[in-house]
């Protein structure tokens, strides 16, 4: 959600289309506006329009129709009456929460919002999961389980082992940017599949000759590099969704201010770097992640050697 309390643009689009379907203005089978039509009508970026349609699909309100486009669902997801629900499978609760966090961001995920997506009263949801803390642990465990670590019988050398773990973690954050906000080493979620990475790295570094305390510090350093870089993924996605401005557009808009600040001579090195042109430095997060990972591995190699 935006800091001023207003709804992000994609949520306003979702609310209007949802209201039209509820009121009967859009009936089952009716075509809903396409991504480009939403962009023109609401003055939003493609990412925002796409996210709005994805959210409506996940709520079961619309569905793709080959040769036509996106239409109002002919069989909308049923909303059970209060008190009439049967047991809700926990895996559906968790998978729905993951989809919401993926599309709307972690800040928008609440027990009330999740209950609405599941079509049940909020109090009924608490019969299946104790609260948001437990929900986040189960979500974290589920997404880390998407790309499990190799088996012990395929154990590589310490460097390849540590790099494997780091890249698998990066893949998790790439698919689910919100997960980087959940992970912490001060109050880590007790998610078994995430903890497996700590065990994996500790074992690899101890075999390489580090004491367990030093191996733990190295494991924390590695995890913080991955997570610290990945935190930008969620922030970047949220900023683009809320404003409709991507990174390139944002930097272009800031160029005049940057030039004015550096013109006084306080930042001569930064000014010379900027003069090299935008292609001089690759600011892609994947590149930054790999650069940092390689330097950390080099440092550990010196420590171990």
UniProtKB/TrEMBL annotation:
Residues 7-75 form the HTH gntR-type domain. Residues 87-147 form the HTH tetR-type domain. Pfam families: GntR, TetR_C_1, TetR_N. InterPro entries: Bact_HTH_transcr_reg, Homeodomain-like_sf, HTH_TetR, Repressor_TetR_C, Tet_transcr_reg_TetR-rel_C_sf, Tscrpt_reg_HTH_GntR, WH-like_DNA-bd_sf, WH_DNA-bd_sf. It comes from the Bacteria. The keyword Transcription applies. Gene3D superfamilies: Homeodomain-like (1.10.10.60), Tetracycline Repressor, domain 2 (1.10.357.10), Winged helix-like DNA-binding domain superfamily/Winged helix DNA-binding domain (1.10.10.10). The keyword Transcription applies. Residues 110-129 bind DNA. Keywords: DNA-binding, Transcription, Transcription regulation. PANTHER family: GNTR-FAMILY TRANSCRIPTIONAL REGULATOR (PTHR44846:SF17), MANNOSYL-D-GLYCERATE TRANSPORT/METABOLISM SYSTEM REPRESSOR MNGR-RELATED (PTHR44846). This is TetR/AcrR family transcriptional regulator C-terminal domain-containing protein. It comes from Dactylosporangium vinaceum.
């Amino acid at each position: 959600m935006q800091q001023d309390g207003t709804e992000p643009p994609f949520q306003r689009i979702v609310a209007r289309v949802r209201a039209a379907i509820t009121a009967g203005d859009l009936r089952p089978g009716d075509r809903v506006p396409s991504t480009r039509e939403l962009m023109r009508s609401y003055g939003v970026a493609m990412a925002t329009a796409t996210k709005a349609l994805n959210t409506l699909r996940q709520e079961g309100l619309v569905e793709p129709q080959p040769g036509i486009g996106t239409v109002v669902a002919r069989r909308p997801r049923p909303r059970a009456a209060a008190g009439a629900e049967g047991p809700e499978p926990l895996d559906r609760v968790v998978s729905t929460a993951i989809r919401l966090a993926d599309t709307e961001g972690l800040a928008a995920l609440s027990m009330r919002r999740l209950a609405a997506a599941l079509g049940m009263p909020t109090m009924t949801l608490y019969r299946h999961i104790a609260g948001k803390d437990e929900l986040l642990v189960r979500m974290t465990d589920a997404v880390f389980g998407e790309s499990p670590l190799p088996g012990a019988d395929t154990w590589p050398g310490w460097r390849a082992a540590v790099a494997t773990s780091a890249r698998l973690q990066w893949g998790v954050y790439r698919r689910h940017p919100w997960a980087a906000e959940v992970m912490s080493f001060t109050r880590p979620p007790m998610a078994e599949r995430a903890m497996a990475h700590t065990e994996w790295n500790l074992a690899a570094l101890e075999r390489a000759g580090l004491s367990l305390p030093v191996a733990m510090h190295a494991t924390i350093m590695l995890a913080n590099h991955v997570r610290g870089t990945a935190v930008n993924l969620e922030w970047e996605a949220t900023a683009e969704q809320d404003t409709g401005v991507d990174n390139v557009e944002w930097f272009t808009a800031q160029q005049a201010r940057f030039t004015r600040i550096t013109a006084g001579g306080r930042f001569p090195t930064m000014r010379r770097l900027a003069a090299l042109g935008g292609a001089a430095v690759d600011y892609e997060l994947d590149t930054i992640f790999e650069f940092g990972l390689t330097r950390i591995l080099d440092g550990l190699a010196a420590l171990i050697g």
